[in-house]
C-alpha cells in the first residue's frame, strides 16, 4: 500500500471536511469569494477563463456524462475527485458534465473537463480544471540567491518514458551535472540514482524539467525558486498554462532531444544577468497562482461556463454576471 505523505493526508482530511459542508455555508463562502474580486481584474479573469475554457459554442453533454449522484471516487483518482467535487457542490446536483481523470494527452471529441491537454493551435475540446493540485501545485517559499548556487545542473525523476531514459543515459556521467533516474524498477541500470530532495536540488543554478506522461511535475516549484529552469518546448498544458510560457523569457530553451544542454549551461553561466532575468520572470509568472481566492473564483467560472454553454442553467450565469459580464470567449 502506498504511504500517504503529511501533505497528502492533510489534503484528504480537508477535502473530506469540505464535502460535508452544508449548502448555506457554501453560499456564504461564495459571497466572500466574490467580495474579494476587484473590477480591475476583469480583463485578466476573462483571459484566463478563455484559456482554460476555449469552447465558445453551445453543446450537449455526451451520453457518458455524469451528474453528482453518479460521480464516484476511485482509489487511484481520489485527489482528482475531491478537487472537482469541491466546486461542483456550488451547483445543482442534477447538472451533467463530461470529465477525464489522469494524464490526458489527446484532444477529446467533445467538451470535456480534463487535468491536462495537448497544446493545440485550435479546435481544442479539453477544458482545463485545477486537478491533483496536492501533487502539482507545490511552490518554493524561500531559497538562496541564484549567484550563490552551484554552477551545475541537476535532474531527478522516475524515467519510465523513453525520452527521459535517453536523456539520463546521455548525461548521467557528464561532468558538472547530477542527472539521475529514480524509478525503483530501474535500480542497477545505467543512470539510476537515489531520490534527491527539492532542497538539495535547489543548491544548483540549473534544474532540468522534462515532461513525463503529460506535464513535468517539477516545473512549478522550479519556476518559483531562484534556480533557472531548463526544458524543451512543452507539448502539454494544465491549469499552470504551460502553453503560455515563453522560451528564454520564463525558462531556458533546450532542443527537442536535449543535446544542447551543456552549451546552454555554458551560455547562461557566461551571462548571469540574463539568467537572473529569466528567474525573475518565472517567479512573477508563478505569483498569479498564489492568489487563493482568485484561483477558486476561476474554478467556479470554468464550471459555470461549462454548464451555461451546455444549456443546463435555467437562470443564466450569475457568477459570470457578478464579475462584470459574460466573459465570453474571444
Structural features, described:
The chain has a five-stranded parallel sheet with strand order 5-4-6-7-9. It has a two-stranded parallel sheet with strand order 1-3. A two-stranded antiparallel sheet has the order 2-8. The protein is built from twelve helices and nine strands. The chain folds into two domains: 15-136 and 291-317, no CATH class; 146-287, 3-Layer(aba) Sandwich (Rossmann fold), CATH 3.40.50. It is an alpha/beta fold and 330 residues long. Helix 1 packs parallel to helix 4. It is globular and about 65 Å long.
Task: Lay out the secondary structure.
Elements: H1 6-19, H2 23-35, H3 42-52, H4 78-88, E1 112-114, E2 117-118, E3 126-128, H5 133-136, E4 150-157, H6 162-171, E5 177-181, H7 198-201, E6 204-208, H8 219-223, E7 228-231, E8 236-237, E9 252-253, H9 261-269, H10 272-287, H11 292-309, H12 318-322
Parallel strand pairs: 1-3, 4-5, 4-6, 6-7, 7-9
Antiparallel strand pairs: 2-8
Amino acid at each position: 500500500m502506498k504511504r500517504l505523505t503529511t501533505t497528502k493526508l492533510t489534503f484528504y482530511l480537508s477535502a473530506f471536511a469540505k464535502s460535508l459542508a452544508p449548502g448555506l455555508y457554501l453560499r456564504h463562502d461564495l459571497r466572500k469569494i466574490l467580495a474579494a474580486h476587484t473590477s480591475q481584474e476583469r480583463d485578466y479573469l476573462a483571459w484566463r477563463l478563455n484559456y482554460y475554457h476555449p469552447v465558445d459554442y453551445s453543446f450537449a453533454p455526451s451520453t457518458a456524462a455524469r451528474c453528482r449522484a453518479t460521480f464516484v471516487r476511485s482509489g487511484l483518482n481520489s485527489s482528482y475527485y475531491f478537487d472537482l467535487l469541491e466546486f461542483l457542490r456550488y451547483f445543482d446536483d442534477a447538472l451533467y458534465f463530461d470529465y477525464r481523470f489522469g494524464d490526458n494527452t489527446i484532444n477529446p471529441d467533445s467538451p470535456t473537463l480534463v487535468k491536462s491537454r495537448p497544446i493545440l493551435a485550435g479546435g481544442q475540446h479539453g477544458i482545463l480544471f485545477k486537478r491533483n493540485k496536492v501533487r502539482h501545485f507545490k511552490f518554493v517559499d524561500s531559497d538562496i540567491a541564484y549567484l550563490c548556487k552551484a554552477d551545475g545542473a541537476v535532474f531527478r525523476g522516475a524515467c519510465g518514458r523513453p525520452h527521459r531514459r535517453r536523456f539520463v543515459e546521455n548525461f548521467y556521467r557528464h561532468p558538472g551535472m547530477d542527472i539521475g533516474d529514480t524509478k525503483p524498477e530501474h535500480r542497477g541500470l545505467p543512470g539510476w540514482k537515489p531520490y534527491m530532495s527539492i532542497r538539495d536540488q535547489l543548491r544548483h543554478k540549473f534544474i532540468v524539467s522534462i515532461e513525463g506522461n503529460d506535464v513535468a511535475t517539477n516545473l512549478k516549484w522550479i519556476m518559483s525558486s531562484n534556480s533557472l529552469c531548463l526544458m524543451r518546448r512543452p507539448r502539454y498544458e494544465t491549469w499552470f498554462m504551460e502553453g503560455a510560457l515563453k522560451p528564454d523569457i520564463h525558462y531556458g530553451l533546450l532542443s527537442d532531444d536535449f543535446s544542447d544542454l551543456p552549451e546552454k549551461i555554458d551560455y547562461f553561466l557566461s551571462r548571469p544577468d540574463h539568467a537572473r532575468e529569466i528567474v525573475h520572470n518565472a517567479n512573477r509568472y508563478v505569483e498569479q497562482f498564489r492568489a487563493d481566492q482568485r484561483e477558486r473564483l476561476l474554478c467556479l467560472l470554468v464550471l459555470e461556463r461549462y454548464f451555461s454553454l451546455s444549456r443546463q442553467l435555467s437562470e443564466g450565469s450569475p457568477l459570470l454576471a457578478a464579475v462584470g459580464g459574460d466573459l465570453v470567449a474571444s
